[in-house]
Amino acid sequence: MSARTPDTARDIPEATVARLPVYLRALIVLADAGTATCSSEELAAAAGVNSAKLRKDLSYLGSYGTRGVGYDVEYLRYQIAREIGVTQDWPVVIVGIGNLGHALANYSGFRSRGFRVVALLDADPARHEEVVAGLDVRSFDDLEGIVEEHDVSIGVIATPAVAAQDVADRMVAAGITSVLNFAPIVLSVPEGVDVRKVDLSIELQILAYHEQRKAVTARAEDAS
Amino acid sequence: MSARTPDTARDIPEATVARLPVYLRALIVLADAGTATCSSEELAAAAGVNSAKLRKDLSYLGSYGTRGVGYDVEYLRYQIAREIGVTQDWPVVIVGIGNLGHALANYSGFRSRGFRVVALLDADPARHEEVVAGLDVRSFDDLEGIVEEHDVSIGVIATPAVAAQDVADRMVAAGITSVLNFAPIVLSVPEGVDVRKVDLSIELQILAYHEQRKAVTARAEDAS
DNA sequence: CTCGTTTTGTTCTCGCGTTCACAAACTCCT
DNA sequence: AGGAGTTTGTGAACGCGAGAACAAAACGAG
Ligand SMILES: NC(=O)c1ccc[n+]([C@@H]2O[C@H](COP(=O)([O-])OP(=O)(O)OC[C@H]3O[C@@H](n4cnc5c(N)ncnc54)[C@H](O)[C@@H]3O)[C@@H](O)[C@H]2O)c1
Ligand SMILES: NC(=O)c1ccc[n+]([C@@H]2O[C@H](COP(=O)([O-])OP(=O)(O)OC[C@H]3O[C@@H](n4cnc5c(N)ncnc54)[C@H](O)[C@@H]3O)[C@@H](O)[C@H]2O)c1
């Protein structure tokens, strides 16, 4: 059992995993600009991080650089893409084709970054007339069939908050094991299912907090 | 100078700041359900965190609970809202009224959470005919006037990546000091300006990484 | 071949955030 | 009033991640 884990399964710190996509993006920009090689300093600047942190992050993947030279842009790009798992496309379903769902369905960036939207689902029959980004909006009841047919493991929830937990439950029951949730609610899912949330109001509120502090401290300095 | 900082300006850890909006949301749900009082255990469950963490987080704000009883829902709700700075509305401008900009403009949740969209700006003159969510889409050149008129300090960027840095520069020059960026690019801004980014592709890629690992480890277990 | 230069990979230290555990404080019941 | 039961607020231990600093490796010049 615990003799040795296979070399594909060394575990990368979560903080590093979150930055790998940023490095990947920066490498694609460099590759498109025709750069063949880059130093950790250059890549770190492009990714907006400290170069020591970048090197440490990359060292978890393996030893893909050359001392005195730097990194081969194309080679490193492939290695990171492979590590993240975006060398092939992941099929994705989007549930809730309202304001946000439309925007997501129309977004071309997913395709170029390793994802393929295979279905758009909505509970409202009035939506089923629609075609968005070349895909029919289908009934939410088609979920199970679509998940099985396309072997979908990633689902996106863009429904109102009240519906989100139900949608998540149905997704999990259908076999989806990764969820990206836009509804402002804490989802509860069984062990083994990953949930990431994107809450735009929270982002704004964090900005508001710092903004308020700027105002307070500015006033305090004026008074002195 | 450094005798003592005023009691409004104690500094709250960044990790705590990011969770306060979640607690606030949970408290609003509890208040709407008619709950007058709650324990740290209940509130923590509603917010999806550990109760010890919740108590420690709240302790940075002050001592707003009652031992043996719990927290007064309405009171704590107000205190958190005050600490975050969302007891009054913050004016916000959105730049880039494409797919995503439309969704954001139409989102009613911002209003109820302390934000008021005061203007929608786009560089494309073809967009200026439009009215979205009751607001005219205006020229990007109106930015400076709007920022001054409404005293805007928070800007949202929903333009393509190539335009994002230019937009950010113009925003900063106009006096905006907090930016929420949806474009997949690292923005560089002067000291004193806060930037938060939301990158949906990165979120999906993080899910993909873990999904891939699940597949790998499952295969490894099968083989044993 | 050797030396100086460049840049990676890694070790070490420090600080932050999480979690445990418990004393202090409050309520309620007798 | 006093004791039993609850629940907060916080001190202390621990683990992870950030950054500095440096040794090892590659390269090029002479
Ligand atoms: N629009 C934004 O910019 C924005 C910003 C932040 C958060 N959000 C959140 O994202 C979610 C979607 O926002 P929106 O503005 O697109 O809302 P919306 O009302 O425009 O769209 C929601 C869609 O979900 C569908 N739906 C409802 N119940 C469903 C169910 N049980 N199964 C399947 N589909 C169902 C509806 O028919 C509708 O088409 C909400 O939770 C919202 O809070 C949106
Ligand atoms: N649509 C999505 O779901 C989605 C998802 C993830 C990321 N994003 C990112 O969000 C951004 C917007 O996406 P979108 O799908 O809405 O794109 P879009 O092309 O539909 O809209 C972009 C809008 O910005 C305007 N614009 C361009 N240059 C401008 C400038 N200099 N000043 C002001 N306005 C300008 C355009 O006229 C257009 O209306 C992109 O950076 C995209 O990568 C979008």
From TrEMBL, chains A, B:
SMART domains documented for this protein: CoA_binding
GO MF entries: DNA binding; DNA-binding transcription factor activity
GO CC annotation terms, alphabetical: cytoplasm
Binding locations of NAD(+): 96-101
Domain of life assignment: Bacteria
UniProt KW keywords: Cytoplasm, DNA-binding, NAD, Repressor, Transcription, Transcription regulation
Family annotation (InterPro entries): CoA-bd, NAD(P)-bd_dom_sf, Rex_actinobacterial-type, Rex_DNA-bd_C_dom, Tscrpt_rep_Rex, WH-like_DNA-bd_sf, WH_DNA-bd_sf
GO biological-process terms attached to the record: negative regulation of DNA-templated transcription; response to redox state
Residues of the CoA-binding domain: 85-186
Compartment(s) where it occurs, according to its Swiss-Prot or TrEMBL record: Cytoplasm
SUPFAM superfamilies reported for this sequence: NAD(P)-binding Rossmann-fold domains, Winged helix' DNA-binding domain
DNA-binding region(s) from the entry: 22-61
NCBIfam families, A to Z: PRK05472.1-3, PRK05472.2-1, PRK05472.2-2, PRK05472.2-3, PRK05472.2-4, PRK05472.2-5
Family the UniProt entry places it in: Belongs to the transcriptional regulatory Rex family.
Subunit record text: Homodimer.
Role: Modulates transcription in response to changes in cellular NADH/NAD(+) redox state.
Name the record gives this protein: Redox-sensing transcriptional repressor Rex
Species of provenance: uncultured Nocardioides sp
